[in-house]
Design a protein that fits this description.
The protein has a 3-stranded antiparallel β-sheet with strand order 1-7-6. By secondary structure, the protein is mainly alpha-helical. Strand 4 and strand 5 form a beta hairpin. It contains 16 helices and 7 strands. The relative contact order is 0.13. The protein is elongated, with a radius of gyration of 31 Å.
Length: about 375
């Protein structure tokens, strides 16, 4: 029998990662973080060629003008952002055409900062998770690790299988009671655990909201409606205004005789082909995150209100995260006597423990909380 366990253990990996945060938080510090990092890599790779390439009459000045226009600003002329003129081929590109020096122009100076800004935004989306892991201090992991293989405890002696040990039935009871004592003894500390948990969830909300407003400011107030404008069929869209592919650049310098010479250049911004795709993707991703975040906050409010008031709600919640639903008596005793912080800690214990192990733990906690005259009835119902 033991040999069979040892053979199987070579091919089966039992250990699993302890869950200490919500699925929504994972979308923040995993998916969103990854999206930003991938955007930094793609934009910084110059896959579509040089970031900027300007057309000049004197080819000896090409490198100089390219550098100057990239680090200073290029511009487009709002008067030429005209769909009808573009259709009639009066202008070759949106925003490009004759202009007067006194005429209003739109300067574009953000593009050289895009990779740096995206990187720091990636860090900000990971920050709440980093803070939470430091605050949490492996509290959940320490409890779960002691009960990890208890669902296989059917023998009278400990069984060593590979690198782990399956505890005996007697040791199982001892460990469950130890965990129960830890839970009962740390009920005050559960408040700190839950407050930090909720604080990091709210920090995620703040990061999302602040980054939406920051990107809108960074793109000159065009991000809020970027998604709907992207879906519009207008020939000159907001993307042409915010992410122009062709721009103008004026380079002035003193010639050999001391007079000012002016080079009016047409510049191709190849990087804006990627920039526009990145920010359109971010708009739809942020919209998706905003909806999920609103639903998550509503769920947190519902659990806070109903955790000690509705037996049906608790049975549904715990049966969803741990299929071996505790009996009604245990649910009533534990939830009625628990602060929301204790309920939240139990909820995450249920997500991390084997259903049968959690059921046993739930029952002995209920027994500890119940008056003596109710314990016999609770044992019979269990």
């Amino acid at each position: 029998m033991l040999g069979l366990f040892q053979d199987v253990s070579r091919h089966v990996f039992f250990k699993k990662k302890v869950k200490i945060d919500s699925s929504l938080s994972k979308l923040y510090y995993r998916i969103t973080f990854l999206i930003f990092l991938l955007a930094v890599v793609v934009i910084g790779s110059n896959y579509f060629g040089e970031p900027i390439s300007c057309i000049v009459e004197d080819t000896s000045l090409t490198a100089t003008i390219n550098s100057y226009c990239f680090i200073s600003t290029t511009f487009t002329v709002p008067r030429h952002m005209d769909s009808s003129a573009l259709r009639k081929k009066i202008i070759p590109h949106p925003g490009i055409g004759p202009y007067d020096e006194k005429e209003e122009v739109t300067h574009h100076a953000y593009y050289q900062w895009v990779p740096i800004v995206l990187f720091f935004q990636a860090v900000l989306f990971y920050l709440p998770h980093y803070i939470w892991t430091r605050w949490e201090g492996n509290a959940m992991s320490n409890i779960v690790s002691s009960l990890e293989y208890m669902y296989m405890s059917y023998l009278d002696e400990d069984v060593n299988v590979g690198n782990f040990t399956i505890p005996s039935k007697k040791k199982k009871e001892v460990l469950l009671n130890q965990v129960k004592e830890v839970f009962m003894g740390r009920r005050h500390f559960n408040k700190i655990w839950a407050r930090h948990f909720v604080a990091c969830e709210l920090l995620n909300v703040f990061v999302l909201g602040s980054q939406i407003y920051f990107i809108n400011y960074f793109l000159g107030g065009s991000f809020f409606m970027l998604g709907p404008n992207f879906l519009s069929s207008d020939q000159v869209s907001v993307l042409d205004m915010v992410f122009p592919k062709i721009t103008k650049c004026t380079f002035k310098f003193h010639g050999p005789s001391g007079t000012i010479q002016i080079h009016d250049s047409l510049c191709v911004l190849a990087m804006n082909v990627i920039n526009e795709k990145v920010y359109v993707l971010l708009w739809f991703w942020f919209a998706f995150l905003t909806v999920l975040t609103g639903l998550s906050l509503l769920w947190r409010l519902v659990t806070y209100v109903l955790h000690s008031r509705s037996v049906l709600f608790n049975r549904l919640v715990f049966s969803f995260v741990s299929p071996s639903t505790p009996d009604v008596w245990s649910v009533v005793k534990v939830t009625k006597a628990s602060h929301y912080s204790d309920w939240l800690f139990l909820y995450y214990l249920a997500k991390n423990l084997d259903p049968m192990v959690f059921r046993e733990l739930f029952l002995i906690i209920a027994m500890d909380l119940a008056p003596a005259k109710e314990k016999k009835r609770g044992i019979k119902q269990a």
